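Worked example 3 (structure in, sequence out).
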């Protein structure tokens, strides 16, 4: 066997081995940086009671609408198993996510069971089908119940398998945010799913919680620039190119309005071409392009509103972890940023105040003292002394501008809070290339072997062809030599 034949043979063996290794795996696409969000929404029959007004529908639409043009979203319905309604679809484009919003409208309350394992498995499969390695993967799981497939033994088996899928998510860098609709939900399970993967668990037992849960998730995954609101008023400065307001309603009959600095009042039925307005039963979402500088006011809202902005002057911050251990010091940092650089100009810093305030669930506040400033970076520290759910507000206030960031977190006791699911059982990982929802979740080795055999047939045929060519060359060479002689 000469050098050419040997080279072809080695090349084909390498191709064969690589094909054997990678046939079961997912196919990734690199479309640039961005966030992929899979909304996994409960469609079990109990949702008729726990969300009779389908408030999860407009709230999910709000989250999709808040995502950026480089982001993608998908929609999965689940009851007895997970059912993909819409695979990962760009939020931007000419339709501005219209296909995704229609997919959310297909969520129902007709299912019989609540298979939380298959909800997670399907969500992960949809997320990994077309995900570039540099993209951030997020799953938002919404449920009103506990694991229930109609068979207690099967419930325990699925609970055990959740351990494996959480490990798989951790290795892939996938975060899960969970939303529980009732006090009867399995909060221990949903909280641990979120905590283990680096997400956060939200509880929406009343109507107004829907908006706050989804805006909190948006803030957790996108870290948007925000404006502080005082008495429903916010200050627009010259660096703001666009503002999106999420205004809550005290009741469904409320009509939200927006007043500009010049005194003009806008509403859903009376707005300009530069204003986009989305109405829902418990909140409105309003986007104003190139807003006029000055003090704006949200009229007739219940409060707890948000004002997200696109701006060149940003308030950046670092606060590690949605879950912190009681008694351990927690560090906070914040700084102003322009063109992705820390603002260090003395004339700006001397006229800017950056403050840190912590809010608890009861409305109490805790100021963080001893804030230090070094090279434009403001830093502080606090020690949580009580367990519970809190929000950290970072606020910057200058002569002509204001900015805000909000971080939700929970303080917990390490001695009583285990990171693992409290159900022992099968500890397996989900194979992304496998079918989800049945017993055939493992890789089909028969298929792999068939592919391997076919590849080797190709290898053999190529090798034989090369050898025949070599023999033909030898034969022609001998024939030519004899003819010349």
């Amino acid at each position: 066997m000469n050098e050419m034949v040997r080279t072809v043979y080695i090349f084909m063996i390498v191709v064969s081995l690589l094909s054997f290794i990678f046939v079961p795996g997912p196919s990734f696409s690199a479309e640039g940086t961005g966030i992929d969000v899979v909304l996994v929404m409960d469609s079990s029959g109990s949702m008729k009671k726990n969300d009779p007004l389908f408030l999860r529908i407009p709230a999910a639409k709000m989250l999709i609408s808040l995502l950026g043009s480089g982001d993608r979203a998908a929609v999965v319905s689940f009851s007895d198993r997970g059912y993909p309604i819409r695979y990962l679809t760009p939020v931007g484009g000419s339709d501005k996510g219209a296909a995704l919003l229609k997919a959310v409208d297909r969520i129902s309350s007709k299912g019989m069971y609540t298979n939380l394992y298959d909800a997670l498995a399907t969500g992960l499969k949809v997320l990994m089908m077309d995900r570039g390695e540099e993209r951030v993967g997020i799953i938002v799981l919404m449920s009103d119940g506990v694991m229930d497939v109609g068979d207690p033994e099967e419930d325990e088996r699925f609970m055990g398998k959740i351990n494996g899928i959480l490990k798989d998510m951790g290795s892939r860098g996938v975060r899960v945010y969970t939303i529980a609709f009732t006090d009867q939900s399995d909060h221990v399970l949903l909280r641990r799913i979120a905590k283990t993967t680096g997400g956060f668990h939200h509880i929406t037992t009343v109507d107004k919680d829907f908006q706050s849960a989804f805006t909190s998730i948006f803030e957790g995954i996108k870290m948007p620039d925000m404006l502080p609101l005082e008495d429903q008023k916010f200050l627009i400065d010259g660096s703001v190119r666009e503002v999106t307001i999420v205004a809550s309603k005290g009741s469904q009959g409320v009509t939200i309005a927006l007043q500009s600095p010049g005194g003009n009042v806008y509403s859903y039925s009376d707005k300009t071409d530069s204003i986009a307005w989305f109405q829902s039963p418990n909140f409105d979402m309003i986007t104003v392009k190139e807003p006029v500088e000055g003090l704006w006011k949200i009229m007739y809202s219940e409060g707890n509103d948000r004002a997200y902005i696109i701006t060149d002057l940003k308030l950046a911050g670092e606060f590690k972890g949605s879950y912190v251990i009681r008694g351990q010091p927690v560090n906070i940092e914040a700084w102003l940023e322009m063109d992705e650089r820390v603002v260090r100009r003395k004339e700006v810093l001397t006229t800017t105040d950056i403050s840190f305030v912590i809010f608890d669930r009861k409305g109490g506040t805790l100021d963080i003292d001893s804030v230090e400033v070094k090279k434009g970076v403001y830093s502080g520290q606090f020690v949580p002394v009580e367990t519970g759910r809190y929000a950290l507000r970072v606020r910057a206030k200058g002569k002509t501008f204001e900015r805000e960031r909000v971080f939700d977190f929970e303080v917990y006791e390490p001695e009583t809070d285990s990171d693992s699911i409290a159900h022992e059982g099968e500890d397996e990982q989900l194979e992304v290339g496998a079918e989800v929802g049945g017993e055939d979740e493992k890789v089909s080795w028969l298929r792999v072997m068939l592919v391997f055999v076919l590849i080797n047939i190709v290898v053999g045929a190529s090798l034989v062809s090369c050898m025949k060519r070599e023999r033909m060359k030898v034969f022609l060479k001998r024939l030519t030599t004899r003819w010349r002689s």
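Notes: The longest strand covers residues 402-412. The domain at 225-311 is CATH 2.60.120 (Jelly Rolls).
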